[in-house]
Amino acid sequence: MHFTARFGWPVAAHAARAILLFGLAAGPAAAQAPDPARVQRGEYVFSAAGCLGCHTDKDGTPLAGGREIKTPFGSFYGPNITSHPTFGIGRWTEAQFRRALREGVRPDGAHYFPAFPYTSFTGITDADIADLWAYMRTVPPAARPNKPHGLGFPFNIRLAMIGWKALFFTPGEFKPDPGKSAELNRGAYLVNALGHCGECHTPRNLAGGLDRSKWLAGGVLPDGTAPNLTPHPETGLGKWSPGDFIDLLKMGMTPDGDFVGGEMAEVVKETTGKLTEDDIKAVIAYLRSLPSVENRVRKPKS
Ligand code: HEC
Ligand code: HEC
User: Fold this and answer.
1) Which of 173, 208, 232 lies at the terminal end of a domain, its last residue?
2) Is 195 in the pocket of ligand 1 (CB under 6 A)?
3) What separation in Å is there between the alpha carbon of 227 and the centre of ligand 1?
4) By CB atoms within 10 Å of each CB, which of 5, 49, 87, 221 scores lowest?
5) Residue 117 — φ and ψ, nearest 5°?
């Protein structure tokens, strides 16, 4: 009697929880119940890779697609990558997801256009892709069909991507350089594989391939320019202090007190502003270690 009065409720509650946990572990949902630690790490990878923007239209339904991505070849529309089984990627396997990011290949074998920056994402490690996949599975399904890309001939030919990839794409997971510090390697990984900073900040040739001899030395975008990030003192960021970098990457504030606009504002909000202190430091260390390239980017007059 005494025992029940004092311990009856908690014991019952524990028993109920044990049954619930057991039920979950044994039930059919168990196979799909994602590991919360993996999902949390995956959410960080998702931010560091900036997956949201291109796949989320103005109405804000996360990853339901429809967002316009302008390029010199026409407009692409980010597809629905929610867990919807028909309109999204709900029926995909982790292996298919990994192949899309690493090789730029669709589950049916067709090739993706590099407006999906797999040229950078190819470097994402298997471990990060596995965590990212765990997170993707938790994105609520949205029943929105994909919008066809608005590309003119001949840029609408997917098969042409085979040739493009042979020329401008080197698939492969990021391999740390043993001659560099752990911080510089982490920075290189954050900037080049996850953050895909080079997709905007590196100049492109006429076929849309990245000019690797001018890595991060500034690029021209359909709606503006992405500045030279190398340490060149006049045309790059050679005169920036570590504090200048921190203000920009955390809040989007430039040394003269302005705020970055447009696409970089979104990068700050969704990506660099969400990085841990250590990761911000690694990004800065890497950018400051880049070879200095003189390149003043100007938008060509149209
Ligand atoms: C710069 C814009 C951009 C970013 C950033 C981006 N994507 Fe995409 N993504 C696209 C475009 C455009 C396509 C369609 C490519 C095509 O049709 O060939 C695509 C296609 C995909 C597909 C294939 C969908 C399908 O139905 O075949 C997946 C999966 C995907 N992206 C996942 C991601 C993930 C995960 C991230 C972050 C790591 C990401 N994307 C970041 C633009 C982007
Ligand atoms: C989608 C294109 C895009 C991506 C991706 C991108 N940037 Fe930017 N970035 C821009 C644009 C455009 C500007 C110029 C913004 C302005 O002047 O308002 C800019 C500005 C900057 C500046 C300020 C430079 C200056 O001289 O004022 C820094 C630093 C920077 N970006 C770093 C990064 C880093 C680091 C990444 C990767 C994590 C990144 N950017 C990814 C487009 C991009």
Assistant:
1) 173
2) no
3) 24
4) 5
5) -75, 60
Q: Is ligand 1 within 6 A of the CB of residue 51?
A: yes
Please give the Cα distance from 99 to 219 (Å, whole number): 28
**Considering the domain boundaries, does residue 25 fall inside one?**
no
Lowest mean pLDDT across 34-43, 105-114, 290-299: 290-299
| pLDDT tens per residue, range 114-127 | 999 999 999 999 99
Neighbours of 198 (CB within 10 A): 23
What are the start-end ranges of the E strands in 213-286? 219-221, 224-226
Q: Is the CB of 248 under 6 A from ligand 1?
A: no
Q: How far apart are CA 102 and CA 98, in angstroms?
A: 6
3-state secondary structure of 77: strand
Domain of residue 229 covers 177-302
In terms of domains, do 231 and 290 share one?
yes
Mutation to probe ligand 2, out of 220, 267, 276, 293 (largest number of atoms < 8 A from CB)? 267
Residue 121 contacts residue 51 (beta carbons within 8 Å): no
Q: Which of 173, 201, 224 is the last residue of a domain?
A: 173
Count of domains observed in the chain: 2
pLDDT given for residue 155 in this prediction: 82
Contact 260, 248 (CB under 8 A): yes
Higher pLDDT, 168 or 21: 168
Atom index in ligand 2 nearest the CA of residue 53 equals 1
**Whether 186 and 168 share a structural domain:** no
Instruction: Answer yes or no: is the C-beta of 216 below 6 A from any ligand 2 atom.
Output: no
Nearest Cα residue to atom 15 of ligand 2: 260
- Does the Cβ of 50 fall within 6 Å of ligand 1? yes
In a domain, 114, yes or no: yes
